[in-house]
Structure formats: C-alpha cells, structure tokens
Specification:
CATH architecture of the largest domain: Up-down Bundle
Low-confidence stretches: none
Largest sheet: 4 strands, mixed
Strand content: 5-15%
CATH topology of the largest domain: Glutathione S-transferase Yfyf (Class Pi), Chain A, domain 2
Structural class: alpha+beta
Strand order of the largest sheet: 2-1-3-4
Radius of gyration: 17 Å
CATH class of the largest domain: Mainly Alpha
Distance between the termini: 36 Å
Number of helices: 8
Helix content: 40-55%
Length: about 210
C-alpha cells in the first residue's frame, strides 16, 4: 500500500466524525486517526484551524487532497473506494437520488434539528433553508418507508450517514422514534462496522477522560 492511499481522519469520539470512521470501516479503506479532544478545545487551536477553519470534525486528508464537510467526505470516500460498492455509479439511475439525500441531510435535516434543539424559529418559509420541521420529517419518513435502506434494497454510504444521524437525533429526542425510524436505525447500526467503531470510540473517550 502506498502512503498516498492512507486516509487521515481528523476525529473526535462521539461526534459527527464517528460516522465518517464507520464509513471507512464499511469501505475497508486504510486509515489512521488524528484524534482531537473537543472538551480541551483542540479543534479551535491554530493547528486544526489550518485544516478546517470552521473548527469542526470530520475532515480527511487523502494524499494531497483535503476534504471537509460531512456530506462531501461521504461522497468523496465512497467514490474513491468504489470497489466497495457503497455508491451508485454515475450512470446508475439512483445516482441522482443518492446525491439528493446526501445534500438533504446537510441542507435541510440538520438545520431543522438544530433549530428545534435551540428552540429557534426557522423564520419565514421564503427565507428558511429547509422550509419547516414537519415537512422535513415527513419527506424523510416517506423515503424510509420504501426501505429497507434509503434507496431501497442496497446499502450505500448514504445509510451510514443517515443511520448515525437518526440514532443521535432519536436518542436526544429531537426526532420521534417512530416504528419506521427505529427499525431503520436498528437495521443499520447493528452492522459489524458500527459495532467496531462504537467500541473504538468508547476507548478513545475513556482515554480522553483520564487525561482531562
């Protein structure tokens, strides 16, 4: 394996980057972790701000390529390791819906959940990037009902993103744990890659707690 094949994942345990590490495991991609301690504020230090000025994880470095933003990282990795079959090909009719639901997460779902958590008014529909919370949840639920995965029978990188997100959102009661949502979360997050990453994250979190 050439050094340029190795992915460096800038990661903090129990954060958005947990999903990115799970995707790397699902892809069978070679990776190493650059672990940040969010409680210590390492994500706001100059060394990491040079990687991502937003001070957020995940970020990845692949050779000379640096990618930030969660949806972009998922799209990039699934395409870079296409042999794993976790992304529809460019000529696959599911490619458009795949990209749609990747971007829907960042553009609509997460902003709606954050506004709900903060008890903020999303503003007028003409100004809100997602419209309203109920419409976001209804659109997502309708997509999940077709199941068993986001785009039907095949498991894609998209499901790593949504499975991770929905587990968090239902745990914190920002999204109702309806039977449809709960069944999807159970189906996705019991996969071996998810279990391995939960164990790794627990160990990392324990190490950080000891040193804090």
């Amino acid at each position: 394996m050439a050094a340029s094949d190795m992915i460096t994942l800038f990661h903090a345990p129990n954060s958005r980057s947990t999903g990115a590490m799970t995707l790397l495991e699902e892809l069978g991609a070679p990776y190493q972790l650059h672990v940040l301690n969010l409680q210590a504020g390492e994500q706001r230090q100059p060394a990491y701000l040079a990687v991502n000025p937003m001070g957020k994880v995940p970020a990845i470095r692949h050779g000379d390529v640096l990618v930030t933003e969660q949806a972009a990282i998922y799209i990039y990795l699934a395409d870079a390791f296409a042999q794993a079959g976790l992304a529809p090909a460019l000529n696959d009719p599911r490619r458009g819906p795949y990209l749609r639901w990747m971007v829907f997460y960042a553009a609509c779902f997460e902003p709606a959940m954050v506004d709900k958590a903060m008890k903020r008014d999303p503003g007028a529909p003409m100004m809100s990037p997602y419209g309203d919370y109920d419409t976001v949840v209804s659109a997502l639920t309708a997509q999940l009902e077709a199941g068993p995965y986001m785009l039907g029978q095949d498991f894609f990188a998209l499901d790593v993103l949504w499975g991770t997100a929905l587990q968090w959102m239902t745990t914190f009661e920002l999204l109702p744990a309806t039977p449809v949502v709960s069944a999807y979360v159970e189906r996705v997050t019991t996969r071996p890659a998810f279990i391995r990453v939960r164990e790794k994250d627990a160990a990392l979190a324990g190490q950080q707690k000891k040193t804090s």
